[in-house]
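Entry 14. Structure prediction run on the chain below.
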Amino acid sequence: MGNFYFIGVDVSKKKLDFCLLGGEKVLHEETVPNHWKSVSELFKRLEEEYGIDSGRTVVCAEHTGQYTYPLSQGCTASGYKLWLEQAAQIKYSSGIQRGKDDRVDARRIAAYARRFHDRACWHKQPEKEIERLKQLEAERALYVSDLAKYKGQLADQKDYMPKDLYARKAKRLAALMKDLEETIAAVNEEMDAVIRSDETLSRQMELLESVEGVGKVVALNMIVCTEAFTRFDDPRKFNCFAGLAPFSYTSGSSLHSRARVSHRADKTMKRLLHLAAVSVI
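Output returned:
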């Protein structure tokens, strides 16, 4: 690919490692803070020094959840498209690897982008409402997990410690649980307000909750993970994503296992759909 550039980005919490490839040659390597302004400033320097531009440059990074947000913002601000690829896809296509180094990983990602640029799937920043719901649901799940933990403490330890000590502990836990329940209610109210403010989201929630076994939490998570049913263009792809699609396991004449689902799936979505199915049964 003459006159084309490939940028591999290794994403971590505090920093981003960049590698710029021109053909097969490494032209530039640099580490910058994980902040969108740092990304924009780096693109400007690369444009001045190497003459890259958004029309002839592929920017690729591993999808690492929230840590890719500043990179996405920086690419958008500078007019560059971003390709977020699954980490396993890059790992298994890069051959045998030994050791772990962020700078080397950035090179591998850039080489992957150069080799498979025809497969690029450009990242689209979710709509503002979807992003808000995603963040609120993650916050709600955190509080629900803590609440269950505290309830477990009350139920499990009553008979295994002195009564006076348990009474004081129970009082403190009760205060914590009350605060958590109020916080969860406030988050739920904010999520309801976001959904009511958007006609499409409101209609989707209504349709999802009309399905037997599907409650508010399942419906909300389906909307978030499918980005309001725009992320997948085929229901089979969603089934695969959620770990519901069975795959055959056969090899030669000796291995003939029954079809089973893959562990490479969104475990949260799989768990919620399983619970929905159990509730129907």
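The mean pLDDT is 89.
Filed with the rest of this week's runs.
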